[in-house]
Every structure is written in C-alpha cells, then in structure tokens.
Amino acid sequence: MEKLRFTISINAPILSVYDSMLGLSDKKSYENWVSIFSPTSTYEGSWEKGSKIYFTAVDASGKKGGMVSEIAENISPKFVSIEHKGFLVDGKEILSGEEVDKWAGCHENYSFSENNGATDVVVEMDSINEYVDYFQKHYPQALQKLKDFCESQ
Question: Mind listing the domains of the chain with CATH numbers?
C-alpha cells in the first residue's frame, strides 16, 4: 500500500471548488474532471457523512462497475474523506474476497483551503502498488481539468 498526494491551486472561491469537485449543484462538474479516469465516470449516492456512495463507470462491454464506498467525513467546504469498502460488479456489491481485501480501509481524502482568493486542493489517497503509476499519471490531469473548469466559471 502506498500513500499518494496530489495538489493544485485553483483561482476560484473555496465554495465553488468544493461544489464543483463533488458535483453538488451539477453532477456534470464532477463527471467532467473524473472523465480523465473513464469517460463514463460518475457517482450514485450522497456525499453526507456516513452515506454509501458508488463511484461507477461503464466498461467497453457495456457493464457498469466501480467502487462501493462510504463518506467517512465531510466538513463543508474544507475536507472530505472517502473510505473504499468494496466493488460494484454487474450491479452487485462485492464486499469481501481477495481483491476487496487489497483495498480494505483505503481512503481518498480531499482537503480545501483558501489562500489569497485561490483555493488549494490536496488529494491524499491510499493505493495498492499495481495502481500507483496509473494514479500518478491520471490524478494530476484530472485536477488540471477541475482547475480549468472552476476558473472558467
């Protein structure tokens, strides 16, 4: 397991960045930046603390899959912690097994702070070794896409 950290400064107010990153006012703002990971990426559920949330995408064969997660914390507009619990495969939750155990207890945390009118975003996440290169390549691109979106509003 490796801890990864990504940062970006966005020239937009903290509430706007927080709202856009989570897709609270318009889910398309979330789908826009996560499209770097998959063009069909979205979420189903709520960002409220204690809520179950699915992070999903449709694969090349048309099947929906993704992560089953829980919002461990949400302190608007400063911090969100997501705990990954398992996988969604063909609409079914898989919450145990060898593949799930690899990700057990992994968190993905978003921190937001204002700095002279800009918002600094820090993403800290746990990753299994086989995905480290993937996230190191794609997360900076995704955050740049979030920045471009927020600064164009």
Answer: 2-152 (3.30.530.20)
